Structure prediction request, 424 residues.
Amino acid sequence: MDDMKEGKIYTNPEQNITLRISEDGFSAYLTIKDTDGMIDEKEITKLLHTTGIKYGVEEAVEYNSQHGIQKESNVPFLVALGKNPEAQSEVSYLFNTENCFNHDEQYNIYELEKFEKVHKHQPLANLKLTDISQPGMDIFGNETPSGVSAQLNVDNYIGDNVYYSEEDNQILALKSGYPYVDYQNKIYIKADFFINEDIIDKTLKIFGDVTIDGVVTNSKVEVEGNLKVKGNISNCIDTGIYVNGDVNIEYSENSKIVSSGKIVINKSARFCSMHADKEIIGEENSSIAGGLIQSGKNIDVYTIGSPFSLLTEVEIASAPYLKEQIKKAQSELSSARNNPEENEEIIIELTSKLKELEERYEEVFNEHLSDELGDYQIKVNNKIYPGTHLRILKHSKIINEELDSATFSVINNKLDINEVDKFE
Prediction:
């Protein structure tokens, strides 16, 4: 390879065409200056020949076509593209390919539990080169020696909702869901579900993002992903809605909703126990009355409480999602211990899980102790009624009179209305 032609810039005599060749000799970009005169294609061809480019013009045309790239004035445009060595590869799956969701079949949502499932960012497969079957070629027509710069053709394995880690030579899950391999040997994850029915007196567990176009009543729902419920959620206080992701609801009453992300309330929540590691947001004209809402970050809602002075607790606390997961694991462990011989494996698993959750909670709690408390806010955009109890970590306040558009934070080591708001 002629090193003088690598990493060089060439121009034609009129200085209106510039050709830049990459340092490794595997690509060349042409820039045509925006001038009044026409650029003769022969000038471009002559410049390419002058630099010694012999390979990759057709490959560049194909690449530009596949990616929708069009030639523009004053913008570098790919005109030659080398070829990396082609390599044979081997894939080893890290999930049970014999027990997978079949995307060509229709399933009842309660059947999903029996299929292989994965969490977000979980490794799905290892890839490795096994042989260099064909050498590469740079744009000067020089072959790349066998074994040099060989690359896996990852696109042969990548389907929807997965991604490739070059560092680990692994394919991983972009979302939680149900993995499968299609007829082209590409790896996919089924991760989006639309449920067009009511969930009443059921136990439902789904991996993926879920939209329920119906009501949820007296049911236990667990979702690894985001959850949106278009109907009313009611009487799930004992069973609970547990979501490792964001939650978006219209109406909810007498229900427990636990989220590792944020909770958005579009209409109303009454007598609910809501716990979100991130924000809790009440959209315009929404209301929250009775019960407890607890966030690990800020709270930004519309109306809190009731003219009838219903006890409504609004708190910013350490890791609410983790805390509720600990309570849930403790309850499950207690039930399993009622029959220790039959539940021996479950007890071991839950004990280990509980220890891990408690260690993570302690870490987050210690981090919160060093936080600047002034960064946390409870914002009420419309009205906050008497009977509302506010708390930001260890600082609390009881509302004894109706207030409009108030923002609360820790000021001078006590929870109070922000000074800015007092003078608005």
